[in-house]
Amino acid sequence: MQPISQVEGNFTDVDGRYVIVVGRFNHHVVDSLVEGAVDSLVRHGVDAEHIDIVHVPGAWELPLAVKRALQVASPDAVIALGAVIRGGTPHFEHVAGSCNTALGSLQLQFDTPIANGVLTVNSIEQAIERAGTKAGNKGAEAAMAAMEMVSLLKHFGGEE
């Protein structure tokens, strides 16, 4: 029996073009996610000139802007950042669910990694924790996922 080969991305072969699409709603939290994402990309060798940041009103608008960025800029990866905080109405479920579903669909449609750094939390305190305090910075984590996927996909070569 032949051994199963293992393939995984790394954080040294991450050169490429990255687009960060940011929902401005809850900007007091989201701004920290953007800082974390950019810092991670640059620290791992991505040229700052190869990072574009696109701002949209909120999480609801993220998928359309991500789609347009994929069509126009042809990036190696997209990082979607935002914060949806639960309120007293079902609005939270609709926005968060639709955004997540659309981003997943776009990733497959364009065969390009879309790292989902959209926080879906129950309170502002949870959002702050995930934007750089107790629970780390989810923007930085999304950037790490994007870079790992760029590296991994380079292993497989060109498009089919």
Automatic annotation (TrEMBL):
<dbReference type="GO" id="GO:0009349">
    <property type="term" value="C:riboflavin synthase complex"/>
</dbReference>
<comment type="function">
    <text>Catalyzes the formation of 6,7-dimethyl-8-ribityllumazine by condensation of 5-amino-6-(D-ribitylamino)uracil with 3,4-dihydroxy-2-butanone 4-phosphate. This is the penultimate step in the biosynthesis of riboflavin.</text>
</comment>
<protein>
    <recommendedName>
        <fullName>6,7-dimethyl-8-ribityllumazine synthase</fullName>
        <ecNumber>2.5.1.78</ecNumber>
    </recommendedName>
</protein>
<feature type="binding site">
    <location>
        <begin position="59"/>
        <end position="61"/>
    </location>
    <ligand>
        <name>5-amino-6-(D-ribitylamino)uracil</name>
    </ligand>
</feature>
<feature type="binding site">
    <location>
        <begin position="88"/>
        <end position="89"/>
    </location>
    <ligand>
        <name>(2S)-2-hydroxy-3-oxobutyl phosphate</name>
    </ligand>
</feature>
<feature type="binding site">
    <location>
        <position position="116"/>
    </location>
    <ligand>
        <name>5-amino-6-(D-ribitylamino)uracil</name>
    </ligand>
</feature>
<dbReference type="GO" id="GO:0000906">
    <property type="term" value="F:6,7-dimethyl-8-ribityllumazine synthase activity"/>
</dbReference>
<dbReference type="InterPro" id="IPR034964">
    <property type="entry name" value="LS"/>
</dbReference>
<feature type="binding site">
    <location>
        <position position="130"/>
    </location>
    <ligand>
        <name>(2S)-2-hydroxy-3-oxobutyl phosphate</name>
    </ligand>
</feature>
<comment type="similarity">
    <text>Belongs to the DMRL synthase family.</text>
</comment>
<dbReference type="GO" id="GO:0005829">
    <property type="term" value="C:cytosol"/>
</dbReference>
<dbReference type="InterPro" id="IPR002180">
    <property type="entry name" value="LS/RS"/>
</dbReference>
<comment type="pathway">
    <text>Cofactor biosynthesis; riboflavin biosynthesis; riboflavin from 2-hydroxy-3-oxobutyl phosphate and 5-amino-6-(D-ribitylamino)uracil: step 1/2.</text>
</comment>
<feature type="active site" description="Proton donor">
    <location>
        <position position="91"/>
    </location>
</feature>
<comment type="subunit">
    <text>Forms an icosahedral capsid composed of 60 subunits, arranged as a dodecamer of pentamers.</text>
</comment>
<keyword id="KW-0686">Riboflavin biosynthesis</keyword>
<keyword id="KW-0808">Transferase</keyword>
<dbReference type="Pfam" id="PF00885">
    <property type="entry name" value="DMRL_synthase"/>
</dbReference>
<dbReference type="InterPro" id="IPR036467">
    <property type="entry name" value="LS/RS_sf"/>
</dbReference>
<feature type="binding site">
    <location>
        <begin position="83"/>
        <end position="85"/>
    </location>
    <ligand>
        <name>5-amino-6-(D-ribitylamino)uracil</name>
    </ligand>
</feature>
<feature type="binding site">
    <location>
        <position position="25"/>
    </location>
    <ligand>
        <name>5-amino-6-(D-ribitylamino)uracil</name>
    </ligand>
</feature>
<dbReference type="GO" id="GO:0009231">
    <property type="term" value="P:riboflavin biosynthetic process"/>
</dbReference>
